[in-house]
Amino acid sequence: MNVLFAAFLILASHPSSYLASGFHPSLHSLNRLQKVSQIGQKPHQSWRSSFTTTCTITTLNAAPVALAKSNEWAAYLDEANNCIYYFNSNTGESLWEPPKGEDFSSITVQPVKPAKTIPEIKPALTVDKEGPVITDGASNPISAMMSPLLKKSKPISPTSIPLRVESSSVVLPHPEKRSWGGEDAIFSRGGVFGVFDGVSGAEKQEGMALYSKTLAAEMEKEVARRRDSSFTLRQLSDILTVATEVADDMATGASTALAGSVGSDNRLRVVSLGDCVTLVIRNGRPYTRSKDILHYFDCPFQLGDVSPDRPKDATTLTVQLVEGDVVVSGSDGIFDNISDADIASLVASTPNKSPSNLAKVITDQSRLLSLSESAKTPYAIEAKKNKIKEYSDGVGGKVDDVCCVVLKVS
Fold this sequence. Notes:
Residues 1-20 form the signal peptide. Its EC number is 3.1.3.16. Keywords: Hydrolase, Magnesium, Manganese, Metal-binding, Protein phosphatase, Signal. It is a single chain. By secondary structure, the chain is of the alpha+beta class. It has two domains: 3-60, no CATH class; 121-409, PPM-type phosphatase domain (Phosphatase 2c, domain 1), CATH 3.60.40.10. The protein is built from nine helices and 20 strands. Helix 4 (211-224) crosses helix 5. Residues 1-37, 45-62 and 112-152 have low confidence and may be disordered.
């Protein structure tokens, strides 16, 4: 079937779910619609199977149904994390607690309380015991020249008492990719960070650099050229655009992308394209998180030479940080295997709360759960809903590359 004709059939038969996916025809020309059939789908790699498929344009998730609405906010039930979350369609901000000044008293659905502890689960496979590579972003200050980019951006007004931010990051490759480092990539420079998840199902050319690692290197290079570590959402998006243009020319494959900055005004700003996640933990509980953006299950928005998605399509998050906040950002190798509530419990129960130790504890636990045949993981829950045969019982981890950046605010 002609791809364009198929696209029009989908719009006619599933208009609400198609628009809900974030892929709006008004924002994408027909030649970009044609590219959707070529973008990569993440393979269902687990203890059960290891195979790669390619996205088609014929299967889409249904739009989530709001439990209640109040002005720009809407409440939704997050079944994977067993709790209600609140999403602002204008700002992209999401909260676990009702936003101040909004009335959601009409909600009658009650989520199931998450378990307070994470059970110890023995892996179903034996993997290389070599530890992950850990880098400390706090020891890597930003320096060098100011880029002429974005002179029109409104500058960030620093607060009188800026918070101190410590950061650290971990990359843990898929067990089968350890020899060459896997497809996840990160950078962390003080309060600026990026997470890039290479799409395993994307077509790649031998002898070329991976798209995800090129994005990370180019973004870090561009960040290093600037004197200020406080970046607006527009600046983060434009820096990502610069990196994307280089990767389109020099790299192969595809990648999701998330970039964040803690400004001198103590605000965390995040732009995210795909299914990498930033989670803010406050007082031992999930406080807010960035929003995933998918074409459909296991096919996230992604950057790549043949992808229709661009940095301007990213979702955004802005949140005022306070002393004691812990910010966890990572690829889906983390968040497919551990719920937000369990990550918060893990952070709260870990005695040594240095960013380097928290990043290692979180990645180790995600790897352990990914190898489990019986863990009720967020990925398994969603896979069962989407009728993935290997997860028909709704349990089991998903083995993947893992990368994580932890920021501690004091």
